[in-house]
Amino acid sequence: MKLMELPNFFIGIDIVEVDRINKLILRSGEMFKNRIFTSLEQKYCDSKSSPSIHFAGRFAAKESIIKAVKSSGYKNPIPFKDIEILPSNTGVPIVDLHFKLEYECKVSISHTKSYATASALYIQK
User: Which of 2, 60, 62, 102 gives 118 a disulfide partner, CB atoms 3.0 to 4.6 angstroms apart?
Assistant: First the structure.
């Protein structure tokens, strides 16, 4: 029996307290949001009834993506704003990396009132 060859993939996960992100936004306002999130991400999160939950989810997603990419051996710095996460028409998060990589990245985000978590897969194309 011949085994199926699997692509290389790397995993990252992160969890964030929503209250921590909320305090950062209240304390530094636009400075924090502008350093971490693209204008489209800010527009999306700010359109929600509880923006902090969505900012926390995207923050956790960016952290999980960085962990997955770095575990592949990638050594360059990855600014948060070089990772953009926007919803598809169905609400599924789509990752747009604003730097050149040979892999594809997928992310799953989940949140409650208190916590946001995300898992990322960095997959060989």
Answer: 60
Which amino acid would we find at residue 83? Answer: I
Torsion of CA 98, 101, 103, 104, to 10 degrees: 10
Q: Which pLDDT score is estimated for 5?
A: 67
Measured between alpha carbons, how far is 93 from 115 in angstroms, rounded to an integer?
A: 18
Give this prediction's pTM: 0.91
Q: What pLDDT is attached to residue 102?
A: 79
